[in-house]
Amino acid sequence: MYTIGEVAKLLNITTHTLRFYEKEKIITPERTDQGDRRYSESHIQWLRFVIKLKETKMPLVQIQEYASLFLQGEKTTLKRLSLLKNHQDHVQNQIQVLMEIDEILRKKISAYEDYLLKRDFS
Question: I need a labelling partner for 54 at 20 to 30 A (CA). Which of 24, 37, 68, 114 fits?
């Protein structure tokens, strides 16, 4: 079991973010008798997934929906699958846009490098 500080350090996020995720019902850590949060390995795996979803621009409301569906159990499997497939479509679109931008940048960089090679610096 990990403390909130240990998890924050391990995942390179703030304790504020962890408290926010708890407030938004994205994660529910266990509590000690003194009320201190404790996170298991499964919590950490879940948080890593949440962080990746955020990095790929999944809206918080969809992450909350997924978390809620997960807690409801097997009966929500099709809904969770649909939600993830929709997000995967979004990610694929992001990849396409990034590839197009990368190609534009390559051409611009090449043009600048060619210009600098041909320029007389004397």
Answer: 37
Answer yes or no: pTM beyond 0.85. Answer: no
Residue-range domain boundaries for the chain = 1-55, 74-122
Instruction: For residues 120 and 102, give the distance between their C-alpha atoms in angstroms, rounded to a whole number.
Output: 29
User: 64-79 burial, b if ≥16 CB within 10 A, otherwise e?
Assistant: ebbbebeeeeeebeee
Topology of 1-55 in CATH?
A: Multidrug-efflux Transporter Regulator; Chain: A; Domain 2 (1.10.1660)
